[in-house]
């Protein structure tokens, strides 16, 4: 019997009506003859509400207690969803992350999964139940509750799918899959029918919000086929696998599961998979860094010790002094404040002139195969931005990605201009946003 893991985000279970709609979809899947495991997020804005509630009590909540508090959101939704499924005549049982065997390290607020022991889940589905698991949470080796950080429910679902050897992991959200750009910015974006893990990783890492980066990494490592689709419609979504050119995923799932996949073949698609954008980037420039061996290494050691994840790096001849360089990096906004403080503290030791922190920037990334080896891709990108009157601040490339940093107030215009320039506009509207968050 085929095993299907389904993950539902907060917008899919935002209220009682939405929960009943999801319950019907689960029951329909079960009655098709599939075993079903469900991972569910907190309802709607529950996590944000809990954060606000904690903030009304204290500005210095212990990390352990914050995780205890935030894990309550998923426990509420898992129990309500189990009730709704039972009400439709199909037995269902809910399980916390601990009960589902999700073991993590002790980094409260951003824990990593270290092992999965879903014995109770396996027994539950063998007994004919739908198993409904709280996403976003687990326990450490001291049995303290931990949370996996934002996007943790995606990671929980893929980890469960891998450990249970599921045939597919369905990620339900409020749009009909992955699109060539965010349909909220580019309403004429096309749905991506099939895509490989590498391209999906690049899109997730560069701002696409439908799938969390950690979940895609997990899926790639354990070869878990993903189907990203909307819980608000019956439309086919986007298939993500090792072999995107064959949506049936033959050789990855058993023959008995093939009725669960579209059966037609596809031809080779365009080089460009899509456009991702990221509003959460900050730019930090060290002006007048001594041009001598060891200076850059020391700087990056300080940044690493501050816990920052660097994205783009550019080094130029200094604009203010001879024999020096200006070193610019970008990183998530949440990492920037601590990084600037750490660099300021080391200013005298390293000998640079100043730290310049800029927050009003956005990143656009063009994702596709053969970006470095395909003549004309860069020229077309830069030409489209030039025609739209958009100045490029920084550039970085990889084999399947070309990213530029632009002014934040021009980011949306940049996405639309590049989307049109590369022929990604649909002839008719394909994208429908059913909810409000895309999660």
TrEMBL record:
Substrate binds at residues 47, 74. Its EC number is 2.7.2.4. Keywords: Amino-acid biosynthesis, ATP-binding, Diaminopimelate biosynthesis, Kinase, Lysine biosynthesis, Nucleotide-binding, Transferase. Pfam families: AA_kinase, ACT, ACT_9. One of its GO terms (cellular component) is cytosol. Pathway: Amino-acid biosynthesis; L-methionine biosynthesis via de novo pathway; L-homoserine from L-aspartate: step 1/3; Amino-acid biosynthesis; L-lysine biosynthesis via DAP pathway; (S)-tetrahydrodipicolinate from L-aspartate: step 1/4; Amino-acid biosynthesis; L-threonine biosynthesis; L-threonine from L-aspartate: step 1/5. GO terms for molecular function: aspartate kinase activity; ATP binding. NCBIfam families: asp_kinases, PRK06635.1-1, PRK06635.1-2, PRK06635.1-4. Belongs to the aspartokinase family. This is Aspartokinase. It comes from Mobiluncus porci. The lineage of its organism: Bacteria, Bacillati, Actinomycetota, Actinomycetes, Actinomycetales.
């Amino acid at each position: 019997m085929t095993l299907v893991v389904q993950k539902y985000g907060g917008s899919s279970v935002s209220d009682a009506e939405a929960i009943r709609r999801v319950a019907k979809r689960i029951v329909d899947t079960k009655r098709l003859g599939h075993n079903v495991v469900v991972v569910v997020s907190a309802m709607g804005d529950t996590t944000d509400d809990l954060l606000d509630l904690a903030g009304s009590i204290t500005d210095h909540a212990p990390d352990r207690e914050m995780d205890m508090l935030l894990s309550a959101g998923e426990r509420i939704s898992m129990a309500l969803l189990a009730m709704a499924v039972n009400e439709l005549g199909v037995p269902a049982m809910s399980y916390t992350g601990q009960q589902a065997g999700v073991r993590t390290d002790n980094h409260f607020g951003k824990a990593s999964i270290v092992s999965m022991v879903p014995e109770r889940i396996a027994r539950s589905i063998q007994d004919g139940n739908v198993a409904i698991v709280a996403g976003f949470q687990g326990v450490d080796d001291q049995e303290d509750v931990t949370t996996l950080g934002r996007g943790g429910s995606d990671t929980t679902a893929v980890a469960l799918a891998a450990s249970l050897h599921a045939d597919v992991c369905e990620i339900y959200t409020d749009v009909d899959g992955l699109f060539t750009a965010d349909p909220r910015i580019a309403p004429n974006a096309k749905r991506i029918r099939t895509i490989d893990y590498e391209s999906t990783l690049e899109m997730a890492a560069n701002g696409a919000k439908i799938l969390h980066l950690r979940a895609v990494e997990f899926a790639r490592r354990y070869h878990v086929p993903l189907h990203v689709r909307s819980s608000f419609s019956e439309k086919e979504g986007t298939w993500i696998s090792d072999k995107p050119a064959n949506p049936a995923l033959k050789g990855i799932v058993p023959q008995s599961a093939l009725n669960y996949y579209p059966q037609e073949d596809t031809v080779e698609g365009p080089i460009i998979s899509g456009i991702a954008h990221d509003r959460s980037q900050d730019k930090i420039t060290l002006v007048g860094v001594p041009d001598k061996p060891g200076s850059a290494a020391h700087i990056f050691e300080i940044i690493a010790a501050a816990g920052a994840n660097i994205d783009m790096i550019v080094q130029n001849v200094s604009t203010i002094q001879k024999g020096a360089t200006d070193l610019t990096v970008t990183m998530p906004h949440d990492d920037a404040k601590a990084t600037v403080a750490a660099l300021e503290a080391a200013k005298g030791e390293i000998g640079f002139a100043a730290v310049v922190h800029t927050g009003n920037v956005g990143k656009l990334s063009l994702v596709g195969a053969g970006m470095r080896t395909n003549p004309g891709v860069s020229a077309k990108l830069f030409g489209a931005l030039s025609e739209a009157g958009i100045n490029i601040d920084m550039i970085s490339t990889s084999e399947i990605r070309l990213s530029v940093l632009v002014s934040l107030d021009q980011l949306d215009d940049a996405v639309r201009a590049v989307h049109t320039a590369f022929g990604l506009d649909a002839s008719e509207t394909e994208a429908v946003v059913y909810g409000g968050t895309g999660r």
